[in-house]
Here is the input.
Amino acid sequence: MRDVAVVASAHSAVPATTDTPIELLIPVINEALANAGLERREVDFWCHGSCDYLVGQPFSFVSAVDALGAWPPIVESHVEMDGAWALYEAWLKIQTGEADTALVFGNGKSSVADMFRVMALQLDPYVEAPLGPDQIALAGLQARVALDAGVITEADMAEVAARSLRDAKTNPVAITSGEFTVEQLLAADKVRDPLRAHDIPAMADGVTAVVIAAGDRARDLATRPAWIRAIDHRIDAQRIGGRDLVGVPSAVAAAQRCGVGGDRVDVAEIHAPFTHEELLVTRALGLDAATTRINPSGGALVSNVLMAAGLARIARAAEKVLDGSADRVVGHATQGPCLQQNLVCVMEGA
Here is the structure.
């Protein structure tokens, strides 16, 4: 296996914008390249994660190539997934020896429609989709199952929100932030029982871009590369009633295959748009919140860019290694309703 590392990243997020996807992509891609000290011609492979549903037209991702510069010809690919899965494809590409450097990115615009309803199109088309539940309703169902099982409490969920909003004050692309006590948050009315407004993510338009490189090339591009020691993704059954909503077995399996519990974890960035999801994933990964810093960026709860928030978690975790504030970190991404698909990435500084 080749040693591969994250060497640079860049982010953007705003509540809403009239910019086209291309206009959103260009400055973030330019920033990521500048942070890595790379020219476009030095990128061996480009991989993009997005979803045509968000734009409402087929093959909308093809226009993103305009942000990359398609001449001279480039080697490019796309996944209809969060950008974290584009990173996985790029990592595989480098493992084959066909590339030494890659730039991966994810982007989405949530402001063009009610994305909680749009993304419900991922549901089973025969039994669940005709019922018309949106993502908030499904998240509320999962939270209720976890609450009734005694695995979490509403106070636990409020604690996640309070910490995330506080941490978001230092995140320049956070959409929401603030200082709140658990008691203040619990006093708010419920939006969808058992969810309150603080349990639901702040939606955003934006981009995350990440540069990865192999071996000596990574050492040339970063003083302290974030080496990807393990990466794996797993999937649970599509039907909501056909899987364990509390145990999240796909996250458990991915964490085990990555050896998350093999050593201490300094920082974990968990892709959890809803507060209860952070609690369930933390439990599934076998992390101890008393010894591991969870979502110091505030997480997807404070800035949920569809198709980029998962890649952002890997990038944010890697940034802690790059700046020397952590030695071993975990980045997590999810896709699909109720944590259906889960990707885990373990990175180290040496």
About this structure: Residues 1-111+201-350 form a domain with the Peroxisomal Thiolase; Chain A, domain 1 fold (CATH 3.40.47.10). The chain has a mean pLDDT of 95. The first strand starts at residue 4 and ends at 14.
